[in-house]
Write a sequence for this structure.
């Protein structure tokens, strides 16, 4: 059971963005999607999210072709976090996080949403933001609020054993070191709770340290996938990135300067 | 006996079939139309008027009465609040939904027919007189005052007509091109009464006319309303307007200004206005 | 969606007060006018026939129509500002008002007299208005391939183009119109609730209320779409369905309103902003608040229209513009400060 793409092609206006891409995300693992700019990482994420329909090939959520799933059903499997738009109207932090709630007004107990919200806000370390107006927050703070929203979307009652997946497109951009580490910590925690996480990253060292699996892309194709040790090879990396890259072990460290 | 009653009944209804049937109660009249107000004063029954519209500006003392606003955009409740027993309006009274509403409340509302000619003016006065039961008063005044004027007008008009005088009526000068009377509007009727030919006269309604069309039409006389002129400037400035500069009317100083309602209201004043204009033109 | 219980309570309170305001205005408007009637007498049954006619046949239909029109303009304005994520959106923006105006202009200027005098005469104008509005929406639908994936900016541009085309058509009709037709059209474009009868009102009530009820459940999706169309999709929102729902109901409600009462500007623009200032931006509160505030405002504006220069009447569009334009300016200044 997983989210996977099978032999997916994406062409827009005769430009081949992805070719024959097969990738699988299992529950409980952190998969890092890495590669140079224009490699197709974001496109792949969007295909997995269902934003884009592939020109060829299929995407499956828990063995169901997503073409057969309606929009709301898809939302129950996975949540996504990517670059966000400015909010035109003056919503509060709580409002934004609550937008991730899929279970409507029919709650099992009256306080279910309230409890879930409190838990998620605490987990993502944004409860000091209280009920501030979202537009008054810094870029990094806003990102963390969107992350909390993506987490809230994955909320299930404790009794449920459904698999859920979290797709993150460069979630660490604009975060300072503390918050970078903190968010990665939460991500790791989610994986431990059984959520499958796909994260597009630029920083190869972070990928090496935090991911269970790496998918290395270049020019719309998968160059290699596997554990960091398997994928990170200095020759392969140098040819993919066009920059001299050296590796050292224990811990696995990638240097390019 | 039955047969006699039937004949009498038919005779009476034939008389009333022209839409000017006597009103049940004409003690409180609301008026929508300047010429109707004029006629009511003319017939000496001005005390019956309880409200009038904004075009009812003659005689000047009429303006002190309550106003029902613009006759094409009446307020049902507003008019009713003045408790009229009869409402008299010209054919542009409206909007039609409000007129229906008022009629459905059981208030007598009569639309007076309009014909843009001397005959039409007389018919209008006779119609109103019939409605308010002043037929004999009307007959007297018409015979004593209006018929002589009409006769003199006919004589003057013949003179104007003999020369086939072309007359252009300008409503307003705003917005570049002058807005001129074509066929089938009140001013067209006025021009006919005076004995002239409508210039350019090759269209219908009130329309803006270009400089070239005016120069081609070459009107010998220009009539303009006082408000139309004041919205533009003075007569001297009018004469210098590029559209009008080269017309025979300007060259021969045949531009005449008069109050708009006087000329186009088609109440009793319009007869005097037509006569005065015809006299000046045929000089 | 309201986990901040304090916020929830405040919004409910404001909404409650707005409803009271609307009801209060309706009562004041029904019992006041240029015609003197004592409502007490009416209830006791001792009013004259004419007095009760004035209240039941003239005033009451007017109050109800102004409430409906105000509510539909306020609600549509709020929904469109949400859908287009543009605080300057207004029902006129999607070309609905222009379409309705075009339909009305065609009827006023082209339809033959026999049609006007026939029994469907009074319905001609509203029918034409709704057809015009529907025509524009259909056109918009075709051009955007069924409110498809091009996004709302494209729709706004199409709406602007449609407005322009309708404007040209109306201009041509204006030029060929007779004097009387021209005056009728002019007054129609300034708006009025005069002359409304129960005959006209009953179908309008059905259409407008129906449209508003169809629009109402979109409140949550409208909040989610603020994150962006892609984000909203990811949260399970059928964005295409949302566009369809909001635009269709706005078109029906506004089309019917414009058809019956002419063009009334600024209400759809201004009312949602006032509602936001009073109670916040969440659409669960904003949609009903805008509807209620719109109704209260319109009822009051109509009362002003028929009492300020009594026994004459001002066109209501004049009053809404007179209040709306300075407010609009203030809104722009406020936006510059990025308070939003």
């Amino acid at each position: 059971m997983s989210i996977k793409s099978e032999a997916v092609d994406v062409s827009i206006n005769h430009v081949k963005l992805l070719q024959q891409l097969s990738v699988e995300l299992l529950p409980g693992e952190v998969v890092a999607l890495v590669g140079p700019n224009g490699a197709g990482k974001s496109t792949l994420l969007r295909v997995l999210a269902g934003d884009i329909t592939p020109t060829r090939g299929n995407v499956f959520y828990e063995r169901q072709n997503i073409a057969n799933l309606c929009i709301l059903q898809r939302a129950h499997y996975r949540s996504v976090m990517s670059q966000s738009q400015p909010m035109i109207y003056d919503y509060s932090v709580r409002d934004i996080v609550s937008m991730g709630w899929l279970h409507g007004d029919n709650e099992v107990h009256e306080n279910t949403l309230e409890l879930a919200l409190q838990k998620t806000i605490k987990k993502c370390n944004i409860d000091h933001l209280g009920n501030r107006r979202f537009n008054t927050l810094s870029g990094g703070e806003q990102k963390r609020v969107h992350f909390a929203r993506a987490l809230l979307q994955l909320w299930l009652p404790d009794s449920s054993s459904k698999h859920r997946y979290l797709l993150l497109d460069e979630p660490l951009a604009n975060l300072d070191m503390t918050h970078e580490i903190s968010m990665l910590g939460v991500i790791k925690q989610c994986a431990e709770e059984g959520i499958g996480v796909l994260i597009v990253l630029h920083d190869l060292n972070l990928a090496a340290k935090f991911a269970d699996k790496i998918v290395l892309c270049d020019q719309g194709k998968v160059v290699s996938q596997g554990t960091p040790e398997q994928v990170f090879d200095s020759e392969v990396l140098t040819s993919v990135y066009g920059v001299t890259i050296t590796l050292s072990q224990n811990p696995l460290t990638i240097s390019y300067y | 006996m039955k047969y006699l009653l039937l004949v009498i009944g038919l005779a009476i209804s034939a008389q009333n079939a022209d839409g000017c049937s006597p009103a049940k109660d004409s003690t409180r009249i609301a008026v929508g139309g300047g010429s109707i107000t004029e006629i009511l004063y003319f017939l000496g029954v001005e005390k019956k008027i309880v409200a009038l519209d904004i075009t009812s500006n003659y005689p000047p003392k009429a303006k002190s009465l309550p106003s029902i606003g613009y006759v094409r955009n009446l307020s049902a409740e507003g008019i009713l609040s003045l408790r009229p027993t009869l409402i008299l309006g010209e054919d542009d009274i409206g909007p039609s939904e409000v007129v229906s509403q008022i009629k459905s409340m059981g208030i007598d509302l009569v639309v007076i027919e309009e014909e843009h000619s001397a005959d039409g003016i007389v018919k209008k006065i006779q119609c109103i007189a019939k409605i308010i039961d002043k037929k004999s008063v009307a007959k007297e005044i018409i015979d004593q005052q209006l018929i002589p004027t009409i006769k003199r007008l006919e004589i003057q008009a013949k003179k104007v007509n003999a020369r086939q005088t072309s007359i252009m009526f300008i409503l307003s000068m705003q917005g570049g091109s002058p807005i001129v009377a074509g066929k089938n509007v009140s001013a067209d009727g006025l021009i006919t009464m005076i004995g002239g030919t409508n210039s350019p006269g090759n269209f219908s309604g009130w329309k803006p006319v270009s400089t070239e069309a005016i120069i081609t039409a070459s009107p010998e006389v220009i009539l303009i309303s006082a408000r139309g002129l004041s919205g533009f400037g003075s007569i001297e400035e009018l004469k210098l307007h590029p559209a009008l500069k080269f017309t025979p009317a300007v060259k021969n100083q045949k531009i005449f200004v008069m109050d708009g309602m006087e000329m186009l209201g088609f109440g009793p004043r319009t007869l005097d206005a037509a006569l005065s204009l015809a006299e000046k033109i045929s000089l | 969606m309201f986990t901040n219980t304090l916020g929830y309570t405040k919004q409910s309170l404001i909404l409650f007060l707005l409803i009271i305001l609307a009801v209060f205005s309706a009562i004041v408007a029904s019992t006041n006018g240029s015609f003197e009637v004592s409502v007490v007498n009416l209830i006791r049954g001792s009013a004259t026939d004419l007095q009760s006619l004035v209240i039941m046949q003239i005033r009451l239909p007017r109050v109800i129509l102004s409430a409906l029109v105000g509510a539909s303009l306020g609600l549509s304005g709020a929904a469109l500002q949400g859908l287009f994520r543009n605080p300057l959106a207004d029902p006129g923006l999607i070309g609905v008002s222009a379409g309705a105006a075009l339909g009305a202009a065609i009827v006023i200027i082209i339809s033959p007299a026999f049609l006007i005098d026939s029994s469907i005469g009074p319905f001609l104008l509203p029918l034409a208005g709704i057809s015009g509005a529907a025509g524009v929406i259909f056109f918009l639908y075709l051009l955007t391939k069924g409110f498809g994936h091009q996004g709302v900016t494209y729709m706004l541009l199409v709406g602007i183009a449609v407005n322009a085309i309708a404007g040209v058509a109306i201009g041509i009709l204006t030029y060929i119109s007779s004097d009387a037709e021209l005056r009728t059209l002019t007054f129609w474009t300034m708006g009025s609730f005069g002359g409304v009868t129960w005959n006209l009102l009953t179908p309008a009530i059905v259409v407008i209320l129906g449209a508003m009820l169809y629009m109402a459940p979109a409140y949550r999706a409208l909040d989610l779409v603020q994150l962006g169309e892609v984000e909203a999709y990811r949260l399970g929102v059928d964005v295409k369905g949302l566009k369809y729902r909001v635009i269709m109901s706005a078109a029906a409600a506004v089309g019917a309103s414009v058809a019956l009462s002419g063009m009334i500007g600024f209400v759809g623009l201004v009312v949602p902003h006032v509602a936001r200032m009073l109670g916040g931006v969440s659409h669960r509160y904003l949609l009903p608040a805008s509807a209620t505030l719109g109704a209260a405002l319109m009822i009051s504006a109509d009362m002003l229209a028929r009492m300020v220069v009594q026994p004459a009447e001002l066109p209501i569009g004049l009053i809404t513009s007179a209040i709306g334009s300075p407010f609009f300016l203030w809104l722009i200044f406020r936006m510059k400060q990025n308070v939003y």
User: Anything to note?
Assistant: The longest helix of chain B spans residues 135-162.
